[in-house]
Amino acid sequence: MDNKLAGNIRVFRKDRGLTQEQLAEVFGVTVGAVHKWEAGISTPDLSLILEMADFFDTSLDVLIGFEARDNRTDALAGRIRKMTYEMDPDGPSEAEKALKKYPHNFAIVFECALLYGVYGINPRKDKYLERSKELFEQTLTLISQNTDPAINETVIYAQLAIINQTMGDTAKALEIYKAHNAGGIFDIRIGQILSQSSDYKNADEYFSKALVKLAGDKLKLMTGKIMCSLWDGDYAMARELIGAGLEDNAIYRREGKPCVLDKYDCFYLTALAFIELKSGSKKKAADCLKKAKNTAERFDNDPDYDVRSIRFIDLNESLKLHDTLGKTGMETIDHVINSLKAKELEKLWNTLR
């Protein structure tokens, strides 16, 4: 709620072409009283405010500048989120007002917890961080109310771990991350804490697992994005993506040793052959397929699906990388050709295999 009475009295008075003396005469008060009203030093009695609204031919709401805010929980939570983004200095006080109104509403408590966490991190303010931690712990008891698919217990525990880590309690942060590390979601964060504690051996294990996941996700992303670009006819985009994929694989491949990345080179080279055919260069297409064939044969003669054959990955136990492109390099080439329904490419491939 915003009270704009002082400014509005001045605006309405001037709109009527009245001086402060004349307005004072209308309402039977001193000029000093009118001056204080317009300066916001004092406020007229309610009876005078009602008379003013009538005199100025306006409503009471307009005169005092009352703007009713939408205080439904969704709208209120949205306002708190906006204050968090903007680091509004009124954020903490507005958060406390909201918590007094809705102390057991999940959305309100979560947004207030988030606000205090953001306000407490940089520069560090422990009182805000403590309040954030308290509120996030409360959200865990209210989680059954949650309707936002982007929020779950793991998200909340991640926030609690971040707060503990910021406050210097890395042991507690590590405990939370490890207890909720489903699918290796916190491998990088665990690795960071262990590394900062000079536990480099265990840190590297977590970093290696994270790198496996990152590499696997990136390969799926690249192959999927390339196929979308080819189907859309955006061959320039596909060509750039293929180049980036081949460069990435070169970085992660160990010299002179077959690697699961070879299958992805087969994918990239076959897709590039398709582009060359579409561009009218049968010779370049054939060259790409020959490279794909050589790569496939080298891999298929001594296949290695273990991710430990990839550079920078140092794991104690074997971990195999599987995909839907085909088990062998040759099957991967066939998979790309069939997926693209590329009859001309298939004919060219049959002359080379």
Topology:
Layout: H1 5-15, H2 20-27, H3 31-39, H4 46-55, H5 60-64, H6 73-86, H7 91-101, H8 106-121, H9 126-142, H10 153-166, H11 170-179, H12 187-196, H13 200-232, H14 235-252, H15 261-278, H16 282-301, H17 329-340, H18 343-352
Helix pairs in contact: 2-3, 6-7, 6-8, 7-8, 8-9, 9-10, 10-11, 11-12, 12-13, 13-14, 13-15, 14-15, 15-16, 15-17, 16-17, 16-18
The value of Rg in angstroms is: 33 Å
Number of domains: 3
Note the run of SSEs as H and E: HHHHHHHHHHHHHHHHHH
What is the first-to-last residue Cα distance? 77 Å
Quaternary state reads single chain
Shape: elongated
Strand content: under 5%
Stretches where pLDDT is under 50 for at least 5 consecutive residues are none
Largest sheet: none
The portion of residues assigned to helices is 55-70%
Question: Helical region count?
Answer: 18
The overall pLDDT average reads: 92
Query: What structural class do the secondary elements suggest?
Result: mainly alpha
Number of strands: 0
Describe the structure.
By secondary structure, the chain is mainly α. The protein has three domains: 60 residues, lambda repressor-like DNA-binding domains (434 Repressor (Amino-terminal Domain)), CATH 1.10.260; 108 residues, Serine Threonine Protein Phosphatase 5, Tetratricopeptide repeat, CATH 1.25.40; 141 residues. It has 18 helices and no strands. Helix 6 packs parallel to helix 8 and helix 9 runs antiparallel to helix 10. The mean pLDDT is 92.
Properties at a glance:
353 residues, mainly alpha, 434 Repressor (Amino-terminal Domain), 3 domains, 18 helices
